Structures are given as C-alpha cells and as structure tokens.
Amino acid sequence: MKVTLNRNAFLEELATVQRAISGKTTIPILTGVKVDLTESGLTLTGSNADISIETFLSIEDEEANMIIESTGSIVLQARFFNEIIRKLPESTLTLELIENNQVIISSGKALFNVNGLNSENYPHLPVIDNQNTFELSARVLNKLVSETVFAVSQHESRPILTGVHFVLENNELLAVATDSHRLSQRTITLNDVNTSFDIVVPGKSLQELSRSFKDEEEMVEISIMENQVLFKTEGMNFYSRLLEGNYPDTNRLIPTNFSTEIEFNVPELLSAIDRASLLSHEGRNNIVKLSINSEQVIIYGNSPEIGNVEEALNYIKVTGEPIDISFNPDYMKASLKSFGAIDVVIKFISPIRPFTLQPNDDEINFIQLITPVRTN
Amino acid sequence: MKVTLNRNAFLEELATVQRAISGKTTIPILTGVKVDLTESGLTLTGSNADISIETFLSIEDEEANMIIESTGSIVLQARFFNEIIRKLPESTLTLELIENNQVIISSGKALFNVNGLNSENYPHLPVIDNQNTFELSARVLNKLVSETVFAVSQHESRPILTGVHFVLENNELLAVATDSHRLSQRTITLNDVNTSFDIVVPGKSLQELSRSFKDEEEMVEISIMENQVLFKTEGMNFYSRLLEGNYPDTNRLIPTNFSTEIEFNVPELLSAIDRASLLSHEGRNNIVKLSINSEQVIIYGNSPEIGNVEEALNYIKVTGEPIDISFNPDYMKASLKSFGAIDVVIKFISPIRPFTLQPNDDEINFIQLITPVRTN
C-alpha cells in the first residue's frame, strides 16, 4: 500500500470517521481507523458500538490529487494518526505500508514510522440491502433531527426513550421524541415513497449524523434493515444500530381542547425565560411561574438564597381563561430554541395538564408538549 | 444607593474585577463583588488570597452615561450578578439598594431583587504609599511577563520558585523565572528611575494582570511595599501579594563558554519540535533527541508502542563540535513560543550541561536556559 495525496482532503475524511471512534472502547482495534486503498480510491472506516462511518475519497477527486502506487489496507491508532497528519509540514503526504504492519508517513523532511494493526482483524460492517430505501436532503434530515432529538431521554432506565421514533406510512414521515416530561413531534410529507417502516434511532447517533454532512444540499439515501439503518451520501456511509423494543403510543398524549391560548415571539420569550431561570437554577426546585390574564403576562423566578425576578412579557395575542402555571425553564428553553426565530402559539388546559407549543401558522406538522410542575 | 448606567460599560468593569474573585474561597464575602457608589463614580472590588482588583468608573465617563441618584455600597454575589447584568434586556440598567441589603436590578420590564451582604464586612485593601514607584507601559510589562512567567514552577514544594523575581537596580530591571529545569531571564533598561527593589511576584498574579489591561498603550504605575505590589492604571488598581523568602542566585547558572552554536528560525523549529514530541508524549520518557553535525541537524522522537519520527531540520548556521543532546520537548516549545517569529541562537556545552537560547541580535538582554535529559 502506497499513496500520495493532499493533506487537507485527507484530514477532512479523517475528521468524519473520527466521529465514530471512541478512545474508551474495550475493543482495541476499534480505537483505530481502517485505511483501505484500492485502485479506485481510499476508504476510511471508524466504528463503535452504536455507529460506524465509512468515507470514500475517489481517485478522481481533484482536490485530493491522489497518486496510488500500490493497494492494501491497515488499521492505525486514530488519535495519533490524526494529530500526525494535522501537523505535517507540507500540503501533500505519502502513506506507505512496509513490513510488520508498519506505516511510513512522510511529508517534506518529516518522516513518521508508526505501528499499525492487521486490517483483517477489523470487524465487518453490516451488509444493507436496498429494499427499504428512500431519500431526503441533508437539510431536511438535519431539521427533523434538531426539532426532535433534544427531547430524547438522557437516562438508560427506559432505553427506548433515548431514541427518536420514526414512522413512515402513506408518504408521511413522523419523527417523535419524548423523555416522559416533554415531547416533540414533527411530520413531513414525502413524494412517491414506496416503503413504510417503524424504527427507533439512538439520539446520539442522530446528533453525530447531523454533524457529519459536508453540504446541506446533498441527498441522503436512507436504507433500513432489521437492526441497522444506513445514511448514505456520495462520499459517506453512516451506519447506526436501531433500538429494540416498542415505542410508546404518543399520539394519544396530545391534547385537542384548550382553555387558554397565547402567542409569543420566540426570541423575546426565550430571553425572558433565560433571565427568569437564572435564579431558579440555584434553588431546589428549578421552576419558573407564568401568570397569564387578559391584562398582563408575567414570568416569575426565585431562589430563597439569592433573590427573585419578575418580568412583564411582551406577547402578540392572548385568549381564554387566566392561568398560573409553573414549569421547568430548561424544557421551555430547549423547546423554544428548536423553533428558531418565529412566532409560537402556546395552549394550556389547566395548571396540572401538559401544554402544547406550535408554530403560529396553520399546518399542524410540528407540535411540542411540556408537562407542568405542580405547586401548591 | 441608586444609579442608572450603560450596561456594557458596567459589564466591562465587572469582568475585570471578576478575575480576582474565586468561587472556591472559604471566606463567603470574598465570593462577592463590592459595589461602592460615591458622587464621583462607581468603584467595584474583587479579591482573593493572592490578588485584589479595584476598578473605577467615573461620573464623567461618556460611554457609562451614569446618573447617580444616591450614594452607598453593597456586596453582591459575583457569579449571579454578572450573569444577571449580562442577560438584561436593555442597554441601560438601574441598581438600587433598598432595605435589608437587598438590591433591585432593573432594565426594561425585567426586575431582579437580589440579596446582598453588608459592605462593612468586606476586607480592606492594603494601603500603599508612593515611595517605591516607577512606570512602565502595559505593552512592556506584558512582554516582560510573557517572556518569563511560563518558566515559573507549578509545584508548591519550593514556593519561592512559583513567582517571577524582579530586581531593579541602577535603572536596570531584571525579571527571571526558573522551575530548576529551565530558566528565562529578561533585562530592560529604564530611564530615570529613582528607586530600587528586589521582589518575587506570584506567577498566577502576573498572568491575571496581563489579561486585565484594556489598552496596551496605557501607562502602569508600579508601587512596591513590604509584602504587596500595586499595578495602577487610570481605571484600575491591581494588588498582588509578594512571595516571601530568598530567591536563588540565578546569575551564576548562566554559562559563558560553549562548544556548539546553531541558529534557527523559531516558527520552523517550533513546528518540527511539535511533530517530534507527538509520539514522545506518550512514552515513559517525554524526550526528543537533537543530533547536530556540520552536514545535517536531525530531530528524533519515539514511543515504543506507537512508533518513531525523524526530521532533518532547516537551520540558518551551525558552528563548533557535533553534539547529540536529549531534552523535554515541552520546555523547548514553551521557550520558543516566548520568542515569537524571530531567529534564535542555541548554544551547547555538552550533552549533560544546560544549553542557552537567545535572540540572534547582539544585545544579551533575553536569555533562556534548558537542562538536557541524560540518556545512555
């Protein structure tokens, strides 16, 4: 195996597969990156228990400017490999596999000789068939993820809730996440998809996935197998395991009748909640109180040791009954952030029933639910 | 006490005194910032066991645009105070002391009511006379600090070595730091200073000091007392305690006869050392080897587990005997960084004697010493 190529092009591939490589794994070969050189180009692979990422740099890539002298493969310690490549003195580098799994990395006058591992011992990636396949743009996929993934559970007590539930049926793709205190659900309509599925993808996999796209406009081909999903772009295969088990029925949780409705500008409400939560964060109960009546809307926060805060909120419109309701400001902040700079409608039933948040437009394709905190 | 002022101007002052405030102190009132309002302006104070910082915002400061309705003083929890001010909705804010040490902080519709502490319980800052006083620009002072402070000891086993030794005599100001493995010494000539002293200032104080100046061109008045030093600028008083004890005589450590001399461009040498140290960092002995002869200069690094690296170095000029010498690359990197993008002359006596580094110009006012590591 011997190849000369552009350092930055190589570094970019390395950075992508590195997302799947953990220094903490108990399987030594998985701390490495697998380098595979064929006549058509260079494949890098990184993997951990949850995700595997494979990138491909084609011999025809102009920026990479690859000169392949001989093919072969090797596994190299990911952390060092990356640091070495990053610090090389020139804009091109040469990788050469010599005897005993040793690799010479050279650039300018610098010459590293590093110990690799036999690539035959590297685990095989799952084989995915192309039965259950559909396409989304990276932009739409990233939006779907960012609108839901924040609401997955961080606790392993109910593992199924650490994932986002995706259901595709009749050209409708539903994504929903809940940690049982709050819920976020998004529906999008796809065109002419001849497949249907019901899967739960780990939230952490989705977060890594959404950081791995090079270009928001590229198309992502999504293939679903029994216990794996593959997200495939032109230069990358991103595999994630699926979570096993039944996801709870979340549809029945979403209320339909309300007694109070109020409309806010999201950035304004977000900064006010942020201020109100400054002190409540320090108290035993991390709650803020919202008090709505037809004349004014006030948010309260307090900490017995430090002090208290109140602020009259600007709002666009309010209808229905007066209400005083307390909630965890962190849930509210995460929810508001996922909306971006739009106006949002919040609908309440009572101080002890979950309330909903939705964009103020007519379509009901994005809805969030937050359970309030009972106070006396 | 009641004042209305510009939020950003106030935040800037807060950020400065915050450098002296530690959340870890065992003296509760020192987790606070003291706010003092007189008819001439606003003084903020922060303090810990090592340093105290006092800033003054004048009633005449145009950006601050202060309206003082009544004077007074209070101590407020620094961490919350800063966060509250930072998140206020408008560009001005009002601070008002009401009964029971409570302070109302208001801006726009947001209204915080926070608990303060009686400012009479705040410790008094040292009184400094103006006997031992001289002036330096912030730029010169910062340079002096950055050229020496990296070499102070990080260990408390010999507390005196955790400081920088400053000696002023006959208009010559000497600054020297050593952790007994390496040393950095800088001398500058001052004009018409009618004072002399011999003090050791804690390295940590100097690091905070050099981050606290608003403007590199401002003049700093330095006053020295028995166990304190005051660095005074127009808007800030920065006090540091001095270290007690005798600083070792470092002059006799600096060699004068050498067998090998070599000249390098600092940025080039620094990146090569950086590469060579990538692998040695992982080994038991964090050392790299430099091998100099009249034909070539090579740097070597290795780790038994990961591999090895060698690189032929570019150099400007070499004279004297061939030498192979091993050293801790971290000391070399810290030393080179303090020189900036210049050329440096390194002079060796033997593989077991300390070597010197100096700028390649004639003046011998900046010299560093690194002790090599003996290998067999």
TrEMBL record, chains A, B:
One Gene Ontology cellular component annotation held by this UniProt entry: DNA polymerase III complex
InterPro entries: DNA_clamp_sf (IPR046938), DNA_polIII_beta (IPR001001), DNA_polIII_beta_C (IPR022635), DNA_polIII_beta_cen (IPR022637), DNA_polIII_beta_N (IPR022634)
Pfam families: DNA_pol3_beta, DNA_pol3_beta_2, DNA_pol3_beta_3
Subunit and partners: Forms a ring-shaped head-to-tail homodimer around DNA.
Main location: cytoplasm
Subcellular location: Cytoplasm
Keyword Membrane included in the entry's annotation: no
Record key words, sorted: Cytoplasm, DNA replication, DNA-binding, DNA-directed DNA polymerase, Nucleotidyltransferase, Transferase
Sequence similarity: Belongs to the beta sliding clamp family.
SUPFAM superfamilies named among the record's database cross-references: DNA clamp (SSF55979)
Domain DNA polymerase III beta sliding clamp N-terminal: 1-126
One Gene Ontology term from the biological process aspect of the record: DNA strand elongation involved in DNA replication
PANTHER family: BETA SLIDING CLAMP, DNA POLYMERASE III SUBUNIT BETA
NCBIfam families attached to this UniProt entry: dnan
Protein's UniProt name: Beta sliding clamp
Species the sequence originates in: Vagococcus fluvialis bH819
Domain DNA polymerase III beta sliding clamp central, first and last residues per copy: 136-249
Superkingdom per UniProt: Bacteria
Domain DNA polymerase III beta sliding clamp C-terminal: 252-373
GO MF: 3'-5' exonuclease activity; DNA binding; DNA-directed DNA polymerase activity
Function of the protein: Confers DNA tethering and processivity to DNA polymerases and other proteins. Acts as a clamp, forming a ring around DNA (a reaction catalyzed by the clamp-loading complex) which diffuses in an ATP-independent manner freely and bidirectionally along dsDNA. Initially characterized for its ability to contact the catalytic subunit of DNA polymerase III (Pol III), a complex, multichain enzyme responsible for most of the replicative synthesis in bacteria; Pol III exhibits 3'-5' exonuclease proofreading activity.
